[in-house]
Amino acid sequence: MASEPTIDTAQHHWPRAGLEEIPVLDLGDYLAGKAGAAEQLGAGLRDAQERIGFFYIHNHGVPQDLIDRMFAETSRFHAQPLDRKTSIKIDEQQTGYAPMQSSEIKYGDAVVDGRHKPDLSEALWLRRDIPDDDPELLAGRRFRRNKWPEGLPGFRDTVGEYMVAMEQLGRRMLPLYALALDLPADYFAPFFVRADIPCRFGHYPAHLGGPDHFGAAPHTDAGFMTLLPQAKEAGLEIFTRSKRWIPAPVRPGDILVNGGNCLVRFTNGRFLATPHRVVGGLPRDRYSIPLFYNPAFDAVVAPVPTCARADGSAGFAPIRYEDYIAGYLASVYAHQARAAAREQSAQHA
Ligand SMILES: O=C(O)CCC(=O)C(=O)O
Ligand SMILES: [Fe+2]
């Protein structure tokens, strides 16, 4: 299984105060095509990703009405009776309904405080929708088949609209990552043709858990960039390089962005995948709708040329994204660990 990335802290030198500030990047001028805006944002993104691993984006171009409708659909889905939700229960495809406390194994090295209780949240996972005759789907590849809820008219259309808008945002942000790393602006584009864009439409019921039992236990995300439209309720906390948990303030209308383990691998540990968690014991129900903007399944995630290690060592070994994500999921979910074991024994049979 793929080993989790570790952060090369020797490359980071920042005063403590700065380690706890989540910057805001305004994409307005950039999306309007203003000269110089991309370079300026690239520098801001570099600072954010080296220092704290999280940043808000303002004027991101995704209509608020669409985000509001996606939140409304998410609460409509979770308001259904449990047997309706479990009729599309999550399986080795990693799409469908993940019930409360279904993260059965814990997040390997990313667990920063040794607490191992399964998440007090439920979620509907969906990926890019592909036609029934897609060759990879017909070949039985994992992570390809969506499970759509029935009896919720309009749900599927809204999810489709949301995925298109959010994927476009992710694609438009790729040049900023490239410029942040002194690479040609189009460097990352080929890795994201048919990007993997899993969405987690999550519900954290009020009054569950507490200081030692979380809505989402401490973890790092697996992919490249996580796009998290702001929930109405607070509750997300991030573990900074000053070794403290700080709340991520709710900034209505903005989208919170954070780096995942694939970004760490691309940058040989220079950009952070910062551990985060959702606290337990929330005063009100909380919904969240992250889209994980990740490479295509066949893309090979390998350190970029500008992130060679100073000591000449190679750093992270190249790995196909799909192999990486399968290993990550097997470390979090028992059903994925079983699927991985089945695939291994089939290969050796
Ligand atoms: O609900 C949130 O605010 C964050 C959830 C999260 O960290 C995740 O789904 O990876
Ligand atoms: Fe996360």
UniProtKB/TrEMBL annotation:
Residues 194-295 form the Fe2OG dioxygenase domain. It catalyses: 2-oxoglutarate + O2 + 2 H(+) = ethene + 3 CO2 + H2O; L-arginine + 2-oxoglutarate + O2 = guanidine + L-glutamate 5-semialdehyde + succinate + CO2. Pfam families: 2OG-FeII_Oxy, DIOX_N. It comes from the Bacteria. Its cofactor is Fe(2+). Gene3D superfamilies: B-lactam Antibiotic, Isopenicillin N Synthase, Chain. Transmembrane segments: none annotated. InterPro entries: DIOX_N, IPNS-like_FE2OG_OXY, IPNS-like_sf, Iron_ascorbate_oxido_reductase, Oxoglu/Fe-dep_dioxygenase_dom. It is an enzyme of class 1 (oxidoreductase). Keywords: Ethylene biosynthesis, Iron, Metal-binding, Oxidoreductase. The keyword Iron applies. The keyword Iron applies. Coiled coil: none annotated. Belongs to the iron/ascorbate-dependent oxidoreductase family. PANTHER family: 2-OXOGLUTARATE (2OG) AND FE(II)-DEPENDENT OXYGENASE SUPERFAMILY PROTEIN-RELATED. This is 2-oxoglutarate-dependent ethylene/succinate-forming enzyme. It comes from Sphingomonas naphthae.
